[in-house]
Design goal:
mainly alpha; Arc Repressor Mutant, subunit A
């Protein structure tokens, strides 16, 4: 397909099917832990940040609206996975902090995710997996500003 030409239906169908499979398998793998993909995404962001984050930053990183993330954080607080804390530098800002229960849940899920990833991506060689990762990152970096 020449550069700038619209993708054909088969290209879109392949991308959509791959996404749907990944989402369905992720949901299945997480159901045993009673977690959802968005919850694990919050746990991952907080774990990787190594510090509490404001809801607005979580929303931006998750590519979601702040009210949706606020509701998600509310549910996670009730489950004991995260807690809200005041920012010491600006007491008006409320941060979301990973709890011990949240850290354990995330650590447990990471093992399960690795197994699911191996099952799903096992048909690809290490080189193909690296290429796929590079291509997906390129698409995301090129288009992320469009949806924010």
């Amino acid at each position: 397909m020449p550069a700038g030409a619209p993708p054909d239906r088969e290209e879109w169908a392949s991308l959509y099917t791959a996404f749907a499979i990944l989402r369905k398998e992720s949901d299945r793998a997480l159901s045993a832990a009673r977690l959802t993909v968005p919850q694990v995404s919050v746990l991952a962001l907080l774990s990787e940040a190594g510090q509490p984050l404001p809801v607005t930053k979580l929303a931006r990183l998750l590519l979601l609206e702040s009210p949706s993330v606020t509701s998600l954080v509310d549910r996670m607080c009730r489950s004991g996975l995260v807690e809200r804390v005041k920012d010491q530098g600006d007491r008006r800002i409320v941060l979301v902090k990973l709890t011990g229960k949240g850290r354990k849940a995330y650590d447990d899920v990471r093992e399960s995710a690795a197994s699911t990833s191996d099952e799903l991506f096992g048909v690809l060689s290490a080189e193909d997996r690296a290429t796929l990762k590079d291509l997906l990152q390129k698409l995301a970096q090129r288009n992320i500003q469009r949806i924010q």
